[in-house]
Give the backbone structure.
Amino acid sequence: MALCPALAQVASHAPTASKAPLSAEAPAPAPAVPVTDKPVARVNDAVLTDRDLLREMYAIFPYARQHNGFPKEMEAQIRQGALEMIIFEELAYQEAIRRKLAIPLARINRAEADFRKQFSSGKQYQEYLKFECKGSPRVLRERIRRSLLIEALLKVEVQDKAAVSMAETEAFYDKNPKKFEHGESFAIQTISIIPPQNASAEVQKEARKRAEEALRQAKATKNYREFGLLAEKISDDDWHVNMGDRKVVDAAMLPPPLVQVARAMKPGDVSDLLQFGTNYTLFRLNARTPAGKTEFEAVKTRLRSDLQKAKSEQLRAALNQRLRKNAKVKVL
C-alpha cells in the first residue's frame, strides 16, 4: 500500500536514463485482464489504447500477473496512475520528435539485443511479437526507438538538471540545522518475563523466580550474541525472535526508569531487574547516543540522494505541466 500515494504523481514511474528500454513490456503470459485495443486517451493526434494502459498498470504493479488481476481496493489508483503515465510518456515522445532528437542505430541494436535476451526461447519471443507487436519485429524496433527518445528527453530535461553538488548539499545542511537534530537514543536488547494477566499470587511468585534466574544467566553472558541467544530461549516479549534486539530507540519512547538506569551504564553492561506492573525486564546496553546534531559527514550521501530525488520529481512535474500546456489531451 505504500505504493499508492505515489501513483497520482507523474514522476512516480517516469522512465529515466537508467531505466531499461521497454522494461514495462517485459515478456509475460497473456494478461488476466481482457484487452480490446479500445482507445482510452487521445494526445494530440495519437491514440492510446487499453493495451498501452494495461502494460503500464503491470509495470506499476507486476504482481497482478501472478495473482490473476489487480487488488480491487487498489485497481482504480493503479489505473489512474498508469493513465497519467502513458499520457506523459506520449507527450514526452512527441516533444522529442519535435526537437528532432536522434538515437544512433547502434544504440537501438544494442537495446533490441538486450530485450531479446529476456526471452527463454525463440517461441516465447514470437509469442510476444504476436501479442504486443502485431507479429512485426519492425513494430518492436519502433517501440524501442520511442522508449529511447523518451529517455533522451528526460535526460536533458530532468536527469541532467537534477544534479546536486556536494557544495549545494552542505549549504542545505547548514541552512536547515533543526532537520538534523536528534534526541537521546539507546540501542538495547531485552529479556522480559511476563506472567498471564490476572495471574494468581503463586504464578506471580513463579514469574519472579524465572526473572531472577534470567538475570543470573544474562549477567553471565559476554557479548551481543550470547545475550541474544538467551533472549531467544527464555524471553516472553515480542523481540525474542530477533535476539531481543530493539535496535535504536528514542529515549522518549522508553520508560523513564529504564532510561535512568541506562544512562548510568556502559555499552556491554547488563542491567538489574526492572519491574513494570507484574512484568519483569532486564536489558543489555549496546550503545547510547546523546541528544545532538548529526554531523554532515554522516548524512551527506543520503541527503544528496534525497535532494536529487526531490529535485527530479519537481522537474518532472514541471515538464509535465509545460508539455500539457499547449497539447490537446482527452481521456476517452
Notes: The radius of gyration is 29 Å. The chain has eleven helices and nine strands. The first strand starts at residue 39 and ends at 43.
